[in-house]
Amino acid sequence: MLTLDRLDKVYRTGTFGTSDLHAVRQVTLDVQRGEVVSLIGESGSGKSTIGKMVLHLLDSSGGTITFDGRDVTHLGFRARREYYRKVQGVFQDPFSSFNPIFKVDRTFETLRRSYFPRVSSSDWRGRLEEALAAVSLEPGDILGKFPHQLSGGQLQRLLIARALLLDIELLVADEIISMLDASTRIDVLNLLVELKSRGLGILFVTHDLSLGNYVSDRVVILYKGRVVERGVTAAVFDDPLHPYTRDLLASVPHLDRTWEDVEAEEAERSAALAGRCLYHEALAAQGRALGEEASAADGDDVGLVEHSPGHFVGCFRLAAGDPCPAGA
Ligand SMILES: Nc1ncnc2c1ncn2[C@@H]1O[C@H](COP(=O)(O)OP(=O)(O)OP(=O)(O)O)[C@@H](O)[C@H]1O
């Protein structure tokens, strides 16, 4: 459904826009119907930039975005409007998505005027109630209220309901859980799982590995704008190949283990891998040398190699922008 092929983003920075910041490098990934794909990485790894390019809130600097088989990398005003019928985003801070001086109903009215001007009031009311029910909200509890009279979780659900009214196929959910309290978090996560089971594709942007593990079918690990590992969630979480993925996983607190236990386990794992490069081993196993890694022609990510079926890994040094001595 959604395919990003070697997507790039360079920001112009500096006082006079004289420097370049290469925020996203050659990112290739796809999201299918009824699937949650998590984009995971630390702050500044380029996750939101990717989400914004998919939502056309930012122009890409290179590569292509394909949706339902159509190249949507560059869209004019009309085409963009149509695109938004199918693709919508929900962001971290639900409060900033509402104008505090208007009741939340206005969000839905604006949507109706823009996209459904011919739908009668009673029909619209029916559709609205259906969308609210889909996100487990009671119209009576929500409509007629100002944003400050509702909780963050309720506002986040409202934004998802708004997206559902458009009958979307893809939702970009950018850190939508991070500002919610623990009990609301799980409700919103379960809502995403429910929407997925109805066929919605979700690109779930998060820095939180446990959230990614909970909701996603596949994960994409980003480091400094590059994909360093991707695959089916269980494969990546049970057998992380890239040192960065391993560091990320080791940094998650475990209820049943102390930090010392985790550290000892990781030290053992690192010792077993010392002097080895899984990336180059996987390349060699395929009879390929550095420089012959996955290419677009293989349908794989540039710079990644398939270590086991569906589980891709990149070179750590390459991701950091350094030459890899193992390949020299
Ligand atoms: N408008 C912008 N102009 C210049 N640089 C930007 C802009 N937006 C983001 N960046 C830079 O691009 C890089 C990637 O930022 P991005 O927000 O995509 O990362 P992120 O992984 O989503 O981080 P976070 O989780 O903190 O939101 C960062 O170095 C950031 O400083």
Any overview of this molecule?
This is Peptide/nickel transport system ATP-binding protein. Keywords: ATP-binding, Nucleotide-binding, Transport. The protein has helices at residues 47-54, 77-86, 105-115, 121-134, 139-142, 152-165, 182-197, 209-215, 233-238, 243-250, 259-273, 278-285, 316-319, and strands spanning 2-13, 19-31, 36-40, 62-67, 70-71, 87-90, 170-174, 201-206, 218-223, 226-232, 304-308, 311-314. With 328 residues, the protein is α/β, with parallel strands linked by helices. The chain has 2 domains: 2-238, P-loop containing nucleotide triphosphate hydrolases (Rossmann fold, 3-Layer(aba) Sandwich), CATH 3.40.50; 239-328, no CATH class. Helix 4 crosses helix 6. The longest helix has 16 residues, at 182-197. It starts with a strand and ends in a 9-residue tail after the last helix. 38% of the residues are buried. Adenosine-5'-triphosphate binds next to strand 1, strand 2 and helix 1.
Summarize the structure.
With 328 residues, this protein is α/β, with parallel strands linked by helices. Helices cover 38% and strands 23% of the residues. It has two domains: 2-238, P-loop containing nucleotide triphosphate hydrolases (Rossmann fold); 239-328, no CATH class.
Can you give keywords for this protein?
13 helices, ABC_transporter-like_ATP-bd, binds adenosine-5'-triphosphate, ATP-binding, Rossmann fold, 12 strands, ATP binding, 2 domains, eight-stranded mixed sheet
